[in-house]
From TrEMBL:
This protein's name: tRNA-dihydrouridine(20/20a) synthase
UniProt cross-references to Gene3D superfamilies, sorted A to Z: 1.20.120.1460, Aldolase class I
HAMAP family with a match to the protein in the record: DusA_subfam
Enzyme Commission no: 1.3.1.91
Keywords: Flavoprotein, FMN, NADP, Nucleotide-binding, Oxidoreductase, RNA-binding, tRNA processing, tRNA-binding
Classification via Pfam families: Dus (PF01207)
NCBIfam families cross-referenced by the UniProt entry: PRK11815.1, yjbN
UniProt GO MF annotations: flavin adenine dinucleotide binding; FMN binding; tRNA binding; tRNA-dihydrouridine20 synthase activity; tRNA-dihydrouridine20a synthase activity
Length: 330
């Protein structure tokens, strides 16, 4: 019996070097319901590399989706089967990353110019797994950025069986802009994503791009089926404490930043015992106390001490002691 499909009303975007298993474990302590995504993993890394290194996670992270980067249907199918075997709740195809490195390997946003290839990949993935296969894409790329081309892309991939489209509401400019600039320079077109939902009412349309409060996310649910948040969820992690109350109507798992960190400590201890350096985990929580009394001291203490070779759990505990007034706001 298959588990229920994830509730995608709120999700945290896949972000390279950010949405690691350590970050995801911490984020799950702030929201029971948010759908979490891995970093993008290329099909080549899974097929020819150390698959366990990329696929391992803690059971607490569910609901959890694996994002794949690739374009060869056979390789995508093989990796989708691996995702299901490892217990992921969804497998997602990246058709949005604009970096030169992935373009050279026919990965990411450049695939928007080839909806037939994306459709072939989706069909192959679905033949080899029973979990949902979803696609994350832009509203276009330079040279293929008309409304008609966007509609054609979604229609063709939907015809191949994809029911969920996560749409970054910007075009990607494939030459001349860095990935960071591609998240900031092209204008946001939320109206296009809203129009996609009207055009395809039977598809699940998730909007992504530029949201930095949960209140703004909730407003979007009047127009689309869900909202995906990226950098704001990483750089201001405490905003995730509003997800369950404001999006799902359930209590937050923790009521304070201190409680969130206390709940993280046993996991940190376990990972330290497995040989994972403390800095690998603490880099994800630097901004937990942003705007609080002692928040800067907390950040500074971790920056100066977590990287030391012998850094243990006591460094994190001492950092917590730098925060005054139980994390009260300034």
């Amino acid at each position: 019996m298959q588990p229920p499909e994830p509730d995608r009303r709120f999700s945290i975007a896949p972000m390279m070097d950010h949405t690691t298993r350590d970050y995801r474990y911490f984020a799950r302590g702030l929201s029971r319901h948010a759908l979490l995504y891995t970093e993008m993993v290329t099909t080549g890394a899974l097929i020819h590399g150390d698959a366990a290194r990329f696929l391992a996670y803690s059971d607490r992270e569910h609901p959890l989706a694996l994002q794949l980067g690739g374009s060869d249907p056979q390789a995508l199918a093989q990796c989708a089967a691996m995702a299901e075997a490892w217990g992921y709740d969804e497998v997602n195809l990246n058709v949005g990353c604009p970096s030169d490195r992935v373009q050279n390997n026919q990965i990411g946003a450049c695939l928007m110019a080839n909806p037939e290839l994306v459709a072939a990949g989706v069909e192959a993935m679905q033949r080899h797994c029973r979990i949902p296969v979803t696609v994350k894409h832009r509203i276009g790329i330079n040279g293929n950025d008309s409304w008609e081309e966007l509609v054609h892309f979604v229609a063709r991939v939907a015809e191949a069986g994809c029911r969920t489209f996560i749409v970054h509401a910007r075009i990607a400019i494939l030459e001349g802009l860095s990935p960071k600039e591609n998240r900031e320079v092209p204008p946001l077109r939320y109206d296009w994503v809203h129009a996609l939902k009207r055009q395809f009412p039977d598809l699940e349309i998730i909007i992504n791009g530029g949201f930095d409060t949960i209140g703004a996310c909730r407003e979007q649910l009047e127009h689309v089926d869900g909202v995906m948040v990226g950098r704001a969820a990483y750089h201001s992690p405490w905003l995730l404490a509003d997800v369950d109350p404001l999006i799902y109507g359930t209590p937050a798992p923790v009521q304070s930043r201190d409680a969130a960190l206390d709940a993280f400590l046993p996991y940190v201890q376990q990972r330290l015992a497995a040989g994972v350096p403390l800095k690998t985990m603490t880099r994800h929580i630097m901004n937990l106390f942003h705007g609080c009394h002692g928040g800067r001291r907390f950040r500074r203490y971790l920056s100066e001490n977590a990287h030391k070779p012998d850094a243990g759990i006591e460094v994190l505990q001492d950092a917590m002691g730098q925060v005054s007034d139980n994390g009260a706001l300034l």
